[in-house]
Amino acid sequence: MLIAALLAAASSLSDPQIATIALTTHRIDVDRGQAVIDAVKNVLVPGAQNADLKTLLQNAVPTLEGHLQHAKMVQARVGSHASR
User: Fold this and answer.
1) Contacts of 13 (CB under 8 A, 6+ apart)
2) Is the pLDDT of residue 84 over 60?
3) Does residue 69 sit in helix, strand or coil?
4) What distances in angstroms separate CA 56 from CA 7, 40, 61, 65, one per listed residue?
5) CB pairs under 8 A, 24+ apart, for 72-81?
6) Whole-number Å distance between alpha carbons of 30 and 18
7) Integer angstrom CA distances of residue 84 from 11, 36, 61, 72
8) pLDDT number for residue 1
9) pLDDT for 71
10) ∠ at Cα 51 (47, 66), nearest 5°?
């Protein structure tokens, strides 16, 4: 029901409107992704008292950074299409 309503609403949007929504979503993802990385590096890793947990968190940072880079790449692509 919800998906059908969303699809119906989306079908009435123009391409520029859809691109604007997508760009806004990716901006949020980039901001949130950077906040997560900062929290892991600056709060969780230093605060971890268990060595295994600390190692796990440290090892997660490159994966998180990779996801952030991907989100930035998508944001740039969507942004270039939105400006057309």
Assistant:
1) 21
2) no
3) helix
4) 40, 11, 9, 15
5) 72/30, 74/26, 75/23, 75/26, 75/27, 75/29, 75/30, 78/19, 78/22, 78/23, 78/26, 79/23, 81/19
6) 18
7) 20, 32, 35, 19
8) 52
9) 82
10) 75
What CA–CA distance (Å, rounded) separates 39 from 17? 33
Tokens of 15: 């391409």
> Where exactly are the structural domains of the chain?
17-82
Determine the Cα–Cα distance for residues 48 and 22; give it in Å rounded to an integer: 36
Long-range contacts formed by 51-60: CB under 8 A, 24+ apart = none
Cβ pair 75, 30 in contact under 8 A: yes
More confident residue, 19 or 77: 77
pTM of the model: 0.62
Closest CA to 41 of 68, 19, 16: 68
pLDDT at 82 over 60: no
